[in-house]
């Protein structure tokens, strides 16, 4: 399969060659020809599958064909986070740079002042990549007109719904012309995502490359059993032993991300927290340091980490397990992108064993449990042997267990500073 066989304009073939894509990824091979015919597409694709180009190339093809005729907003790409907006916008701009025509790609997201974004939209735009709330604000300010949109893309539809954008999406749909093309991408398909897809798409072509094992990213999954208070020591041990230079560590809370990053720094590991309280400027700075290798460990929460795209991220560590099974897939999708191999390591504490089993069940996985010498769990872990709930070492009542924060504080108190 080659890009030339997909039916793309010659200028686009030159552009993909110029940015170094040799052959289409599976989702591109499945989605591009259908989208070029004007069909709706339902794509089951993870981050790292090459889905951005899968929807960007057909939009750019249409824009090249219409040059000199109609103007106005052609493509609307809705994304769940500002990081993803910036990343997708930059990826489309990288392609546009190599095209002979001027195609304007705008990026809009909340959490920053709206005025520069309004200014940037003066004179119109061909494509806009936006988070739903900010797009609505821009439409309310008449900074953008949505009634001429030819192609709507929902990127990471599952995360859009997870983040509570269902109402905003409905409002946006009401502003779009009824006749349009819809390209719908999601990593997972829980009921809410399926209903949204069903209400939006007309006779879609299904591009479900996920089920095709040959195209699954090459990710080695590991699960290490460890007691909660020993996780920091284990993390330091693994970083040192493997000489990891680029690790993305997930924690459940902002507090934990700060705490873990702080402890690592005190042990001379170049680490930073990465969560939603950071300003956009601070996030961009931290990401740039991580990309450039000045920072070896990024300790992130799920929401903040969404959209981090770093080619060949080698290691992801679940310091805390994700609450939702779908987030497990999203997290490990940060590694092993576009052919590169990666490893995803989950720390499984005795308390979290039952939860990890649930994640495995939901995702159809079985990850063998490992123990690392010197870090074997010693807490009462009858649960993992018998399937019965672990005895509370403090003789506590169920439901009166220590909170995660308390446990973290305890863990912190036991660590050498
Ligand atoms: P995405 O899933 O769209 O975020 O893409 C994941 C990564 O794969 C990005 O770094 C892209 O630049 C890269 N990529 C996309 N398509 C191709 C391709 N056909 N060949 C090689 N790399 C690609």
From TrEMBL:
Pfam families reported for this sequence: DEAD (PF00270), Helicase_C (PF00271)
Keywords: ATP-binding, Helicase, Hydrolase, Nucleotide-binding
Motif Q motif per UniProt: ranges: 1-29
SMART domains: DEXDc, HELICc
UniProt KW Phosphoprotein keyword: no
InterPro entries xref list: DEAD/DEAH_box_helicase_dom, DEAD/DEAH_RhlB, DEAD_box_RNA_helicase, Helicase_ATP-bd, Helicase_C-like, P-loop_NTPase, RNA-helicase_DEAD-box_CS, RNA_helicase_DEAD_Q_motif
Disordered: annotated segments: 377-417
Keyword Nucleotide-binding among UniProt keywords: yes
Domain DEAD-box RNA helicase Q: residue ranges: 1-29
Signal peptide positions (record): none
Residues in Helicase C-terminal domain copies: 233-386
GO MF: ATP binding; hydrolase activity; nucleic acid binding; RNA helicase activity
Biased composition (Basic and acidic residues): 407-417
Family from the record: Belongs to the DEAD box helicase family.
Name of this chain's protein: DEAD/DEAH box helicase
The species this protein was found in: Pseudoduganella lutea
């Amino acid at each position: 399969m080659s890009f030339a066989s997909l039916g793309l304009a010659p200028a686009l073939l030159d552009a993909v060659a110029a940015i170094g894509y040799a052959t289409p990824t599976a989702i591109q091979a499945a989605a591009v020809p259908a989208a070029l015919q004007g069909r709706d597409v339902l794509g089951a694709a993870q981050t790292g599958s090459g889905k951005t180009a899968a929807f960007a190339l057909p939009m750019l093809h249409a824009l090249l064909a219409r040059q000199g005729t109609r103007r106005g907003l052609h493509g609307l790409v809705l994304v769940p986070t500002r990081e993803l907006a910036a990343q997708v916008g930059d990826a489309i701009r990288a392609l546009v740079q190599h095209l002979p025509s001027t195609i304007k790609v705008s990026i809009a997201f909340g959490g920053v002042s709206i005025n520069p974004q309004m200014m940037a939209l003066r004179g119109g735009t061909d494509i806009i990549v936006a988070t739903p709330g900010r797009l609505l604000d821009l439409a309310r300010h008449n900074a953008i007109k949505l009634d001429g949109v030819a192609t709507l893309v929902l990127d990471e539809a599952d995360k859009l719904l997870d983040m509570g954008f269902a109402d905003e999406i409905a409002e946006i749909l009401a502003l779009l012309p009824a006749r349009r093309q819809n390209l719908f991408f999601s990593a997972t398909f829980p009921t809410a995502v399926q209903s949204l897809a069903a209400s939006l798409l007309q006779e879609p072509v299904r591009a479900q490359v996920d089920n095709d094992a040959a195209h699954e990213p090459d990710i080695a999954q590991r699960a290490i059993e460890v007691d909660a208070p020993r996780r920091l020591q284990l993390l330091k041990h693994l970083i040192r032993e493997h000489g990891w230079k680029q690790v993305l560590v997930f924690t459940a809370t902002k507090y934990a991300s700060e705490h873990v990053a702080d402890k690592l720094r005190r042990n001379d590991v170049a680490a930073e927290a990465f969560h939603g309280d950071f300003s956009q400027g601070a996030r961009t700075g931290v990401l740039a340091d991580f990309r450039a290798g000045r920072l070896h460990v990024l300790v992130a929460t799920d929401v903040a980490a969404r959209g981090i795209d770093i080619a060949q991220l080698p290691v992801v560590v679940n310091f805390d397990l994700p609450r939702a099974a779908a987030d497990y897939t999203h997290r490990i999708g940060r590694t092993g992108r576009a052919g590169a191999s990666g490893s995803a390591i989950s720390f499984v504490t005795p308390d979290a064993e039952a939860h990890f089993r649930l994640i495995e069940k939901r995702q159809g996985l079985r990850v063998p449990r490992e123990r690392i010498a010197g870090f074997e769990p010693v807490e009462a872990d009858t649960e993992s042997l018998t399937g019965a709930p672990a005895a509370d070492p403090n003789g506590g009542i169920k439901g009166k267990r220590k909170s995660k924060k308390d446990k973290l504080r305890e863990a912190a108190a036991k660590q050498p500073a």
